[in-house]
Write a structure and sequence with these properties.
The protein is an alpha+beta fold and about 675 residues long. It has five domains: about 100 residues, Rossmann fold; about 70 residues, ATP-grasp fold, A domain (Dna Ligase, domain 1, 2-Layer Sandwich); about 250 residues, ATP-grasp fold, B domain (D-amino Acid Aminotransferase, Chain A, domain 1, 2-Layer Sandwich); about 120 residues, Glycoprotein, Type 4 Pilin (2-Layer Sandwich), CATH 3.30.700; about 70 residues, OB fold (Dihydrolipoamide Acetyltransferase, E2P) (Beta Barrel), CATH 2.40.50. Helix content is about 25%, strand content about 30%. The strands form eleven sheets. The protein has an eight-stranded antiparallel barrel. A five-stranded parallel sheet has the order 3-2-1-4-5. Strand 27 and strand 28 form a beta hairpin. Helix 12 packs antiparallel against helix 13.
Length: about 675
Amino acid sequence: MFTKILIANRGEIACRVAATARHMGIQTVAVYSEADALAKHVAVCDEAVLLGPAPAKESYLRADKIIEAALATGAQAIHPGYGFLSENEEFAEACAKAGLVFIGPPASAIHAMGSKSEAKALMEKASVPLVPGYHGENQDAELLQNQADAIGYPVLLKASAGGGGKGMRVVEHSAQFKAALESCKREAINSFGDDRVLVEKYLTRPRHIEIQVFADTHGNCIYLFERDCSVQRRHQKVLEEAPAPGMTPERRAAMGEAAVAAAKAVGYVGAGTVEFIANQDGSFYFMEMNTRLQVEHPVTEMITGQDLVEWQLRVAAGEPLPLSQAQLQLSGHALEARIYAESPENNFLPSIGTLQHLRTPAAVSFELGGTAAMPAGVRIDSGVRPGDAISPFYDPMIAKLIVWGRDRAEALARMSDALAHYQVVGLNTNVAFLKRLVESAPFAGADLDTGLIERHRDALFPPPAAAGVVELALATVALLSSEASDAAASSDPWALQTGWRMNLALQRSFDFGDLDNTVSIAASYRPNGWLLNHAGGDFPVELITREKNDYTIRIAGKLVTGTVVIEGESVHVFTPGRHITLSYADPLAHAGQGEEEGGRLTAPMPGKIVAILVKKDDQVEKGAPLLIMEAMKMEHTISAPREGTVEELLYAVGDQVQEGAQLLAFAG
């Protein structure tokens, strides 16, 4: 077995590998960029080596520097995690040439499955069913469109070297094909350095089911059951579960055996995932093989009681698989939710910022290497801590929240409760959306397919609800309590916040911004608390306990608990299952300030201009696309907010822009 390994990745997977290695008595070496010097994965490893500047091309994608770091620190093997160089055959070959073990499949297997087109051809020879499509080398735009027309719309354009939902476009009509192809190719070349695409028939209500396979160097290959990853947005997974709802033993065996056949066809070694697209009638087609460990591997660990990272290390060291197919047991049901810094209501646009406040539900660490019949009910895999930043350079995942239950109903209830207790302040997250999704009728009823989110958009994206009297009371008490705490630390008698007056009780007004409205709360001081007046009603309020940001108050005779985080002029109120953000600006602090200029088109996040679709003096309609930005390897279209005229273009194609930068001058 290895004594030291280097982890060529970052975030939660680097932390995850480090935890397993520590359990096995193996030392670890972290690599990091200048943006990650204080990151969690650096802290949890035994050693750390700086690779270079923040952009991945200058750090985490520098194979030469990673191999140099491994040799310099005495590491015997490199674990690539997932993403970055994990499916790069040149990197695997370079490791071998340097005398290092690549903890993954051989370069030949990566090559065979690295191109979706070539992989389809291999699977066709192995009699694995394929979705109708074009997987050829000829990338002439006219030929591709003719192929799409012949297949019949809708079709799916996919980057041949792609993954993670990047470089994918659904094309509904022939007239949309040219623009979709250009966009797909741009995103593919930026993400993978390869703009080749394939064209496939787009199934209208498919399920995305993947099989976890594992092979060793002794000729053994098994499957560790399946995962259902159907719930997606922008072709990226949102929720995963194992086993797949409604899966019969016969279908599980058929898909598992097909996955093992696919792995054997390329001489696979290590952990891999064979992904299938399945119709509602049970028929299934090979989609692709990911030659690495997947983000969603924890749900497989939870239902099998096995540590797949430990399996990776043992197989890479030349040991046989720990278990045979017959020895594997499936126990209970597991769900995984990806907690992202993003804005679901704004087309899931990534959010950038600092985790000013981070509180997770109570979790019990997964017993690494264990085989317990009942794993921890709640598990959190994360690569961040309070105070860490989510930068524009890398994937905006905050954590993976994984739950286990004896059956799907128990797992659903546990996930809903865990999401209700997940608190983040400092950037936008998908936590509330995930809770709505888990509790929605189609997901709870296992009516699953890849279009679930779009099909139930109205229910999953309801209009935001206004703050209720409980949230407003908690916010008011938090402000008053914070003032009192500050005053208590002062020796100035005029700073006292008791509310004492000679003849009358002091009354104060608090104006909160809630959605697009201003909500006023009048607070009258009383000996044991305050009398709050809201919307014509009086509510006696008493502070019972305060522990940092946690408050227990009695309002109108009822005990209420909540967390209130004051961040600048924002007041975040968390009650079980709800997060309300109110604005509160001290009127004295803003005296004399004028209105800010509004109506400008600005960059929603840091990124690069990849296409400009208008010229100066162009007249455009509301909603017309003006330019396209690329950020976090995804394209974002900036559209006209109203009918108007483009007065000036402020950036050119290729320019980098900062969040909030005005992109063009527009008059409407």
